[in-house]
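Fill-in record for Glucose-6-phosphate 1-dehydrogenase.
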Amino acid sequence: MAALYSTRCCSYSSVRSSPPPQSYPYSPSPSKLGSPHCLTFTSSASKRFLAAKVSLKSQSDSQLNALHMQPQDAAAVANATPVKSDTPLQRLKDEILSVTSSKESEGSVNVDGDGNESTVSITVVGASGDLAKKKIFPALFALYYEDCLPKHFTIYGYARSKMTDAELRNMVSKTLTCRIDKRENCNVKMDEFLGRCFYHPGQYDSQENFAELDKKLKEHEVGRISNRLFYLSIPPNIFVDAVKCASTSASSANGWTRVIVEKPFGRDSESSAALTKSLKQYLTEDQIFRIDHYLGKELVENLSVLRFSNLIFEPLWSRQYIRNVQLIFSEDFGTEGRGGYFDHYGIIRDIMQNHLLQILALFAMETPVSLDAEDIRNEKVKVLRSMRPIQLEDVVIGQYKSHTKGNVKYPAYTDDKTVPKDSLTPTFAAAALFIDNARWDGVPFLMKAGKALHTKRAEIRVQFRHVPGNLYNRNFGTDLDRATNELVIRVQPDEAIYLKINNKVPGLGMKLDRSNLNLHYAARYSKEIPDAYERLLLDAIEGERRLFIRSDELDAAWSLFTPVLKELEETKINPEYYPYGSRGPVGAHYLAARYGVRWGDLAIEQ
Ligand SMILES: NC(=O)C1=CN([C@@H]2O[C@H](COP(=O)(O)OP(=O)(O)OC[C@H]3O[C@@H](n4cnc5c(N)ncnc54)[C@H](OP(=O)(O)O)[C@@H]3O)[C@@H](O)[C@H]2O)C=CC1
Ligand SMILES: O=C1O[C@H](COP(=O)(O)O)[C@@H](O)[C@H](O)[C@H]1O
């Protein structure tokens, strides 16, 4: 369960610009801020308290509300002299006590019921690789810098490459950066952090090597309750071997063991189901944290806040007012260096089936019962399962070709040595999707994703319907589309949420223009936005599953895309070639036009 305002006590939560409202169940006292110990209390106890309060709500709303409970009050209730068992107060007490004790071994507690301290060991499997260097170690350092990691933690790198601890530290140190807005003691913190990083060389399919790792982890855990997180930052063909060895030879004996799995989770329904089945031989669903790093991005996380905590959006969030929704991803670089991987997957599997579809599900879901991970994921699955099968004619694919600009020659996709010269793999795709439910019936959700385009951007564009009988129609000439409102959620770069409205240009005449009501993050918030991997790693440590993909979500996502992917591949559809650095194939415009849509990112004023 997660709260709208972070319950985390580490300064990570300082991203918010104003304090939580008084009615929120827990505001950390200043003395707790920054203390690694309080991670336990804020994230676990207040969540459990909320769970207890929510489940009791139906019994006696007014009486419970009258209690004005805070976690400290909850603790007081829990310690109070027993009262008659049928009163709301006693029931609340029972609930708090039972929820607190039942899942203790699961949460990121630092102290168990008997006062024993626990420790978290994080093993980055594939530590010598690109993702580990680029994202995982820097994110772990950022969490350490922000005092978000538990007091007792150890980080192990594991890979086949021969490296000493010192060499790993040297490698990692080159990738660490300080926050732009927080540099105080950064070098000291870096040294401290590196001192907690170790390396163990080993094969991914060797029980023996993982048993050696286990031995080393135990030395660091010095008898404390051991919680272990394995991050699989390795190619997918070795996921199962690594999971088998980690779970049988290096899982925790007395705490939790969790495994973060990176995408790709298969390449179609069958391979994904096979992967899930294999993983579940060694892990329960609760132990598997399938990462989609787009879910950790600030503005994606904010989608629910925008929808469910502002009166003005949710009433408009349906076919009645929304004409179309656009999910746009573009990168201004190609697949250079990753061609081998990419050619096996293509842009639909790389971006659409996961990142864009996840955003779509969050955007379109019904109001969840609560912010609990299962409630949110239940609603997302419903959306995915309500989606109409994608028709081949609703998909456009493209591949970038070489282009010379000035004196620079940009390569074609197939110029990459690891890509077959005759590859038809799409580096661009656009698709029209539909959700056949009461809320979204008939509303096109247009997706567009591409590599080697003119810009790097990820955004959600919501185009609203025309104002019926608009008194000012004549001010817009024949182009009524220009008069419709558009909400843009710019996920990256330069995060922003802006709403295009019609406005009178000041003056004696009646001239209208379109202006933006603009929430520009850089202007509004002085804090640096944490990288998605920071949020996701912290959630995995805390056992928060809301931003990870459940297996039924994954199945539903693959069921939607597998048939059309198969059709594209079996019929060997030729991609439309577009120059490196361009806006992509014109076919995307024809596709949009078929549904009366104009891509929002083409407008002059964006
Ligand atoms: N890089 C990125 O930006 C992203 C990556 N991912 C996913 O994250 C995972 C890791 O990505 P990335 O770091 O780029 O991967 P790498 O190709 O860099 O591989 C990671 C490590 O795995 C080992 N390895 C590589 N190939 C093999 C092989 N064929 N057999 C056994 N071991 C191998 C290597 O370590 P050693 O030789 O030392 O054992 C390597 O350093 C992958 O699943 C990828 O799809 C997801 C999103 C983005
Ligand atoms: O998962 C992936 O994401 C990256 C884009 O991530 P971003 O956070 O930099 O926007 C993409 O380049 C890569 O192809 C894909 O596998």
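KEY FINDING: The pocket of NDP (ligand 1) is lined by residues 126, 128-132, 159-161, 204, 233-236, 238, 262-264 (CB under 6 Å).
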